[in-house]
Amino acid sequence: MVDSSGRQREALRHFLRSRRARLSPDDVGLLATGRRHTPGLRREEVAVLAGVSASWYTWLEQGRDIKVSDGVLDAISHALRLDDTERVHLYRLAGTNPPQPASRSSAPREAPSLQPVVDGWLPAPAFVIDRYWNVVAANSKARSLLGVPSHGQNYLTSFFTEPSARVRFPSWDDMAARLVGQFRVQGARFPGDVRFDNLAEELCRADEAFAGLWARHETCNAARTRVRVRVTGQQGARYEHLILSLLENSDLSLMLYMPMPYAQGVGLELVAS
């Protein structure tokens, strides 16, 4: 006779296998390799996406009695593209209490109400990012002047992998060091959330400059800085950059850019780049 814990582990095994079977490598941005005898992702592919070892994920899917953290379960939820209901179900099958919604990034829910906020900042740039620096909302000036990517894309990834960023920002090196330091501080606010480590590893592979800065382990918590942006030819504009946390959801940060005026207090300050 199977006890309740055994039935729960068996249910966990079937649930994970079924969620894995419904995904293809294309669905998660992986290159399909080799011949597949069964549909869906392989266990080792889920492990890579979740940032855990293949053997550990295999043990979990086999229903072995192992301890799991909330951060790992959240990473597996993300890797398997679970919706909110499925995510809660996974936590319960694993024998843990689902975290409160406030502990997760709620960018999809907040996005509609935040677009008017950033649009109201025009003609200056403004945008909102979540805890992983994915873009939640951005106004037209942020996209055209700062190169902020579209909704759902990662600002940090765009900054380090898009060649136009190095042209757009004359002081790109200084700005890059500051962004990496800020990202490290942000990650420390959410210990156990492996998605920060996964993103850092991806960026280290994608860009040598990021890899070098990440290896320094430097931090930056500046909420107010100055940014210079090349506009046309040899001219550019200076902005005061403010980072504001939204009180209703500490996962979200509002990025505001205020044009720096002339000495007389009017207009944009044009500078040689």
TrEMBL record:
Domain HTH cro/C1-type: 15-87
Pfam families: HTH_31, MLTR_LBD
CDD domains named among the record's database cross-references: HTH_XRE
Protein name as it appears in the record: Helix-turn-helix transcriptional regulator
Lineage: Bacteria, Bacillati, Actinomycetota, Actinomycetes, Kitasatosporales
